[in-house]
Amino acid sequence: MVTLKVATADIPPFVYLREVNGTWIMNRGIEAELLHLMSQYLNFSIQLLKCDNLGVKLDNNTWTELFGLIANKNSSLPLIPGSLRPVFTGWLWACLVLTSSYSGCLYSLMSFPTRVKTINTVEELAEAQREHRVRVIATTSDAYYDMIRSLSKSCDKLRSHPGSSYYDNERGECKYQECYKKLSHTKEFKDLNKQLDSLPEETKAKKAYERYIFYL
Predict the structure, then answer these.
(1) Continuous H helices in the chain
(2) From its phi and psi, is residue 22 left (phi > 0), alpha (psi between -120 and 50) or beta?
(3) Tens-of-pLDDT digits for all 216 residues of the chain?
(4) What are phi and psi of 30, to 5 degrees?
(5) What DSSP line would sit under 47-82, residue for residue?
(6) CA 65, 67, 70, 73 torsion-angle sign
(7) Helices 152-160 and 187-197: crossing angle, nearest 10°?
């Protein structure tokens, strides 16, 4: 059986040395257990060379303690704790960053899903507006605004009920909300009323308007 000379020092928690009958043994420790497993698997024995510290370099270019044993070839293997510490430290930091990034994205998707229910019909748009899930807006210079202004029948209802109206799909009639009456006092609303009076009675979009929501 091959005997491997190992130079080491008592440096907990990596190596714990204990003297038994004039012989130093490694009874426990992280690197001690690793070395014992290697000796059992590769079938070799261990002879410890105890050192008080790692050693220093002298003026005559010689080393003392553990490095001195290695330089003088008195030891086959230096057991220096902490040589892999930077590698494990970097790996742990990488794991921390990756797990934090993944969990953060997962929590954000669970708390606020990016996908919302798609609105496919006018009735769904009206329901979403009533539930305040969406806000329907339009500019005064587009085709939709001109189409709404050309609907005389519904605009007559709007003039008789100053406020905002919406189409009730279940009853088939227009309902009016009191909370929008303040709009009738605005300059934009009064200007729109003047324009509505001059619109034609019949338009192509009149029937289509009766089936969807209208907010002024």
Answers:
(1) 30-42, 65-71, 85-111, 122-130, 143-149, 152-160, 187-197, 206-209
(2) left
(3) 677 777 777 777 777 777 777 777 777 777 778 877 888 888 887 777 777 666 677 777 777 776 777 766 655 555 555 555 677 788 888 888 888 888 887 777 777 655 667 787 777 777 887 787 777 666 666 666 666 666 555 555 554 554 444 444 444 444 444 444 445 555 555 555 555 455 454 544 333 333 333 433
(4) -65, -50
(5) EEEEESSS--B-TTS-B-HHHHHHHTT--SEE--TT
(6) negative
(7) 140
Task: Count CB atoms within 10 A of the CB of residue 72.
Answer: 10
Pairing of strands 77-78, 164-168: unpaired
Cis ω for the linkage preceding 113 (within 30 of 0): no
**Is the Cβ–Cβ distance between 150 and 199 less than 8 Å?**
yes
Helix (H, G, I), strand (E, B) or coil at 5: strand
Is 175 in a helix, a strand, or coil?
A: strand
| Beta carbons within 8 Å of 77's beta carbon, 6+ residues apart | 4, 5, 6, 7
CA distance 167 to 157: 12
| φ, ψ at 28 (rounded to 5°) | -165, 170
How many other CB atoms are there within 10 angstroms of residue 78's CB atom? 18
Report the CATH number of the 2-78 domain.
3.40.190.10
Q: Please provide the DSSP assignment of 75-106 as one string.
A: -SEE--TTTTHHHHHHHHHHHHHHHHHHHHHH
